[in-house]
Amino acid sequence: MTRGDEQAPASARLRVRLPAEVTRLVGRGEALAQVESQLAESRLVTIVGPPGIGKSRLALHIAHRVGERGFLCACGEARDEAGLSTALARGLGVPLGAQPGDALGRRLAALGPARVVLDDLEQAVATAAPRIERWLDAAPELRLLVTSRERLRARAERVVELGPLLRDEGLALFVDRVRAIRSDYAPSAAERAQIQELVAALDGIPLAIELAASRLEMLGIDGLLARLGQPLSLLSRGARTADPRHATLRGAIDASWALLDEPQREALARAACFRGGFGLAEATAVLGEEALDRLEELRERSLLLAPAPGRFALYGSIRAFAIEQLAVSGDAEKAERRHRDAYLSLGEGAAQRFHATGGGIEELALERDNLLAVVERALAREEPEMAARAVLALAPLHLTRGPAAFHHELLERVMAELPDDPDLLHARGSVRRALGRLAEAEEDLLAALELEPEGELFVRIRKELGVVHHSARRIDAARANYEAALPRATTLGDRRAEAILISNLGALDHDIGRFESASARYAEGLDGLREVGDTRLEGITLTNLGVLEQEQGRQDVARQRYRAALELLTACGDFRYEAITHGNLGVLEHEAGRLDEAERHHRTAIELLAEVGDPRSEALARARLGAVLAARGATAEAIQELDEAERRVVGRDAMALAVVRLHRCFVDLAQGEEAAAERRLALAQAPGEDGGPSLAAISDDARLLLRLVGRQSQAASGPSLRAAADGSWFEPPGGERQSLERYKAARLILARLIEARHAQPGEGLSGEALFEAGWPGTRIAAESANNRLYVALAKLRKLGLKLFLLRDDAGYFLDPNTTLELASD
Questions:
Q1: 153, 377, 788, 808: least CB-packed within 10 angstroms?
Q2: Closest to 355 (Cα-Cα) out of 320, 314, 392
């Protein structure tokens, strides 16, 4: 061979043709840019990723981008350096000499600034790096692009990990491949949503999406979705001309399995026990003490995902393959029992933290799928006690984040085998209460009490019974249950339970208008909850305290309470009470006339509650939204929300239904039907059945609603005044804040007027009473006292109270037809 032959790249290019791109590359814009960027900086780039992810397809596209300077070498059969040299020679279209490595180095150098793709290199990856490095040394203008399920670990190697397609990309790929078969294919909006669901279920793996698209005509989109439980069977027909490793998903995964050693295969098979992600501690429990090494090896071979530090997961198709391998290994039962024990320990520990401090929800959310796997396997093996432990561990998650109805289904399945378990009866009573099924909840809880539970369980059952009665506004029955539980909690030294019960007693006092007692109990409960560090229940109690402050006219204080509560509840992940707090903020903003903010809070509440599955709270949120919409004049939309609210509570909760229906006052007012609104308001304030208390007498929701209606009427007839409760400042409508810090007497007089306005609106205070308020304990002549009072009142009028500070025969008072917003600052 002459030197001239060695430097004749044109003849080499004539003897080989780059394979055509027979399909369009869909998506991958970000990955393409990343690979191009790395190739610009490094002469060796490796694209890694799991079977079927599209490494070869992307690499072929990149080779085509440089035209005649692009070459593709199929290395799937290469096992060593010799096989690699053969694959490269075939791809370049040149013969191998006696010293193939050196000859190929010279050929590569003669190509100049070329891009050579070494495709499917994983079978030779252990020995390929030295040879590739020598070729790069021999050809300084060469750039090599490698595709492999494992990186080379070569000098100067840059690695691009190819991940799943995004949903929109997967949708576009599916439609593109179907159109290759049926050119007129145009999915409807509903079908596109189904395709996106399919793409997500197939983990965004392009090969899986293409194979699913090839079966659309036979199965339809519903049929494809129905067969997702058997992905390897569903995705088993590929192109006849394709390499078996690329033709089917099973073939692609099987090729990767063949490259594993026995310990790696055992680890991958056992990892099939996990659902969703899993942590290192649980992996060690299931895979053994060498779990970290095995996981790292599987990760390097693109068979394992690492979505976050310390978290691992399998693609669904790889997990399906691993399940098959575990089943034939004879190791399945042992591995699944290890998995069960690990997750029962984890789940029960998280649930205990929830019951002690309100924590643990995030951990339960993270491991929900694995705990559900424990339930399913335990029921299949007729081990209901194990299933019950897992379901009880999941209760805090499903009651705070939902779906509550799904948790009820789990309990029903377990209780078919364990109908008289007091823990399960308590749990089902709790979830039925959350679902608004109060009669059934009471039945479960009474049945649990008949089993004579002791200790903490007795306290929890009595507390839950109290909440059931409280929800139905059976105040005396609720109080009896809370008071029965309280001494037991004290005896047990359960400070948290004590604080909860005291706060709940405060809520009862609040409902019947004993505001001073309610405030004291809320404060005591807060102290206890802060002492034990339960930020979740602290947030709930702050929300209740905010409602109390709002009902007493201290809107700014209430707003501060709600915002502090939201911060705590959002941090601990309690979606249910986060939503309830948003709803209370919405009512507050409605009362303040900020309808845009009110609507935003109510819509946020509805969205969260729909996810949780709390129909009573969602009904109330929809009714409140309906009130806001009616106040804005959107009566048709308001009626829709109110109708939907009623549907969610009819036949479940009479008290909630009454409160929801009361919100129709706003529709009546918006439609000019004042008489209808007045009838509803009168009904809410009339005695209940058999002469019992009125709705307004036992429901803070009803009382706040009556205030809202009153505010709306005032807003239509008069202006609004803001002031500090202690009289230190006031803000007239449309005016600037006026400070009274320099005018002590005027400040004290305003504070007294505000107090009277709240306690006895429209009733005047005598000059003597106001003088005593402004100059407490001072004894001077009547004329001097009148002069001082005149100066102080003149100062208040001059600063902006002229239109609001009124006088009649009884004395002085603030206009009762003016909206008065009180603040603490």
A1: 808
A2: 392
Distance CA 125, CA 46 (A): 11
ω into 403 cis (within 30 of 0): yes
d(CA 804, CA 753): 11
Amino acid letter for position 250: R
Rg (CA), the chain: 36
Phi, psi of 341 (to 5 degrees): -65, -40
**183 φ, ψ to 5°?**
-65, -20
Task: Categorise residue 390: left if φ over 0, alpha if ψ from -120 to 50, beta otherwise.
Answer: alpha
Dist. CA 119–CA 46, nearest whole Å:
10
β-pairing, 278-279 with 70-74? unpaired
Q: Which helix (H) or strand (E) covers residue 523, if one does?
A: helix 515-532
Quote the tokens at residue 745.
């007497």
The DSSP 8-state label assigned to residue 799 in this structure reads I
Tell me the two tokens of residue 430: 């709790």
Strand spans (E) along 677-825: 720-724, 729-731, 738-739, 805-808, 811-814, 819-823
Q: Among 387, 289, 409, 276, which residue's Cα sits nearest to residue 340?
A: 387
CB 50 within 8 A of CB 321: no
Please state, in angstroms and rounded to a whole number, the distance separating the CA atoms of residues 366 and 279: 10
Q: Is the pLDDT of residue 692 over 90?
A: no
Q: Count the helix, strand and coil residues of the chain and give each as a percent rounded to the nearest 5.
A: 65, 5, 25
Predicted pLDDT of residue 171: 92
Strand order in the sheet with 44-48: 70-74, 115-119, 143-148, 44-48, 158-161
Predicted confidence at residue 239, as pLDDT, reads 47
- In tens, the pLDDT along 79-119 reads 888 888 888 888 888 776 545 556 788 888 888 888 899 98
Q: Rounded to an integer, what distance in angstroms lies between the CA atom of residue 751 and that of residue 728?
A: 8
**Which long-range contacts link 309-312 to residues 24+ away (Cβ below 8 Å)?**
310/279, 310/280, 311/277, 311/278, 311/279, 312/271, 312/274, 312/277, 312/278, 312/279, 312/280, 312/283
Q: What is the DSSP string of 414-469?
A: HHTT-TT-HHHHHHHHHHHHHTT-HHHHHHHHHHHHHT---HHHHHHHHHHHHHHH
Q: What stretches of 289-358 show up as alpha helix (H) in DSSP?
A: 291-300, 316-329, 332-357
**Assigned token pair, 651:** 């036949």
Q: Are 406 and 435 in contact (CB under 8 A)?
A: no
CA distances from 263 to 50, 273, 293 (A): 19, 16, 10
Q: Is residue 123 a contact partner of residue 82, using CB atoms and an 8 Å limit?
A: no
Q: SS3 letters for 162-216?
A: CCCCCHHHHHHHHHHHHHCCCCCCCCCHHHHHHHHHHHHHCCCCHHHHHHHHHCH
Place of tokens 């992600």: 277
User: Closest Cα partner for 441 from 429, 451, 450, 431?
Assistant: 429
At 227 the three-state DSSP class reads coil
Task: Let me know if 777 is exposed, middle or buried by CB neighbors in 10 A (0-12, 13-18, 19+).
Answer: exposed
> Two tokens at 792?
């102080």
Average pLDDT of the chain is 87
- C-alpha 197/C-alpha 193 separation (Å) is 6
Top-confidence residue, 593 or 65: 65
Residue with tokens 């999406």: 209
Cβ proximity of 612 and 576 under 8 Å: yes
Q: On the CB side of 198, how many CA atoms lie within 13 Å of its CA? A: 32
Tokens of 607: 């969205």
Q: Which tokens go with 515?
A: 């505001």
User: Using CA atoms, how far apart are residues 464 and 452, in angstroms rounded to an integer?
Assistant: 16
- Span 386-396, pLDDT tens digits: 999 999 999 99
* Cβ atoms of 71 and 91 closer than 8 Å: yes
C-alpha dihedral sign at 146, 152, 157, 160: positive
Strand partners, 738: 730
The pair of structure tokens assigned to 223 is: 């049929």
Cβ neighbours of residue 337 under 8 Å, at least 6 residues apart? none
